[in-house]
Amino acid sequence: MKAAYENVESKKEGASFVAYHSVVPYFEFKWHYHPEYELTLITQGDGRRLVGDSYENFEAGDLVLLGSGLPHTWSSEPTAKGTTSAVVIQFSEEFINSFLQHPEFEAIKRLLDASHTGIYFPSQKSEAIIRKIKKLPEQAGISRITSLLDILQLLSTKVGKPLSSEFFASAKGKENEERINKVCGYIQKHSAESISLDKAAGLVGLTNSAFCKFFKRVTGKTFSDYVNDIRTGNACRMLTESDKTINEIAFASGFESLTYFNRVFLKKKKMTPRGFRMSIKR
Predict the structure, then answer these.
(1) What is the spatial distance between Cα 85 and Cα 43, in angstroms, rounded to a whole number?
(2) CA angle 181, 185, 191 (to 5 degrees)
(3) Closest among 164, 210, 149 to 72, alpha carbons compared
């Protein structure tokens, strides 16, 4: 199931960004992406939220910030309870970057940098922000822009939960060190192949022991765990967007056996590959 492109630009209607109330009988499964950032608040309804390779239940009060290009959907079943609703705010990098060049917006810049995985904000800690989000679609003029900036500033002070893994969507790469960029780029490119510790360490001129310490210090992960993260993310993409068998996906992702693939996937995603595929097709 390949994610569809959503043309957000066509919805702007002369405004700097998009902000609207969505009221529908139920949230239809629409796996899609767009280059704009998106802030979505569910005001009524419950169901399942899929962001990258994150699959979780949601209910009213669900508040999520999505980075550019991250595939996502909220999905619910038709019920007799009535309508479901959400507030959706979408803004482009071009728009927000005009503010991020100033030092006063450093906290918002960090927030948006972190949103490439999607960020969930617990509603019980975001009541004031939720009230502001609900009012935004009715605002006009300069106050509409300042309200959005105020919402983003408030979100930047909250501790959110990352949703998708780092490697489901194309990573923009924030590591500043040339060595780790070189290694991570190599792993990303050759993840479906056999990747040895000797080869990775040799890329940056370190002994295996020194490399393992360096890699763990910079990424917070062991080398093998990092490789498995990438392979699992690639597997999730194939499970979502292709009809390949589980066995084919295991080897196409670089895992040495189906058994090992199943074990790693279950550990990282808390469900089997088959369960993951079934869950997104409900």
Answers:
(1) 5
(2) 140
(3) 164
What region, left, alpha or beta, does residue 160 occupy, with left being phi > 0 and alpha being psi -120 to 50 degrees?
Answer: beta
Structure token digits, residue 20 = 């609207």
Q: Is 72 helix (H, G, I), strand (E, B) or coil?
A: strand
Other beta carbons within 10 Å of 131? 9
Q: Are 155 and 115 in contact (CB under 8 A)?
A: no
Q: How far is CA 25 from the centre of its chain?
A: 26
CA 47, CA 269: separation in Å to the nearest integer?
19
Chain CA centroid to CA 139, Å: 28
Q: What are the E-state strand segments in the chain? A: 4-5, 18-24, 32-33, 37-44, 47-51, 54-58, 63-66, 72-75, 84-91, 119-121, 161-162
CB-count burial class (<10 Å; 0-12, 13-18, 19+) for 157: exposed
Q: 10 Å Cβ neighbour count for 84? A: 23
Q: What is the DSSP string of 205-266?
A: T--HHHHHHHHHHHHSS-HHHHHHHHHHHHHHHHHHH----HHHHHHHTT-S-HHHHHHHHH
Residue range 32-63, pLDDT digits in tens: 889 999 999 999 999 989 898 888 899 999 99
Q: How far is CA 263 from the centre of its chain?
A: 23
What's this model's pTM, rounded to 2 decimal places? 0.70
Backbone angles phi, psi at 22, to 5 degrees: -110, 120
Dihedral sign of CA atoms 143, 148, 152, 158 in order: positive
CA dihedral in degrees (228, 229, 232, 238; nearest 10)? -130
pLDDT single digits (tens) 63-107: 999 999 888 999 888 776 678 999 999 999 999 999 999 999 999
Q: Is the Cβ–Cβ distance between 134 and 68 less than 8 Å? A: no
